[in-house]
Amino acid sequence: MAEKLIITKKPPKGEDGYKIFSIRIKDELYDGIEELSTKTERSRNELIGMLLDFALKNAEVRTGR
Q1: pLDDT for the residue 17
Q2: CA distance 1 to 20
Q3: Hey, which of 18, 24, 25, 54 would disulfide with 29, CB 3.0 to 4.6 Å?
Q4: Rounded distance, CA 39 to CA 31, Å?
């Protein structure tokens, strides 16, 4: 008797731990991301996630002037 392939329902969008949103960026920033994408053979989405993760981990908030 052959094994069965068990297929479950796909979870609803938004329940995979990711969120989708759009941003507006300058042409120069877009070009830099495109160049980095080409050089590294990674998607823009993957790179932007990596860059945002790095920025959040290394950001410092200073109060006052």
Answers
A1: 81
A2: 44
A3: 25
A4: 12
Distance CA 17, CA 53 (A): 15
Please list, in sequence order, all residues whose beta carbon lies within 8 angstroms of the beta carbon of residue 62, skipping any fewer than 6 positions away. none
d(CA 39, CA 3): 44
Interaxial angle between packed helices 44-58 and 27-40, expressed in degrees from 0 to 180 and rounded to the nearest 10:
110
DSSP element (H, E) containing 36: helix 27-40
The encoded tokens of residue 3 equal: 């094994």
Cβ(29)–Cβ(47) below 8 Å: no
Return d(Cα 8, Cα 28) in angstroms, integer.
44
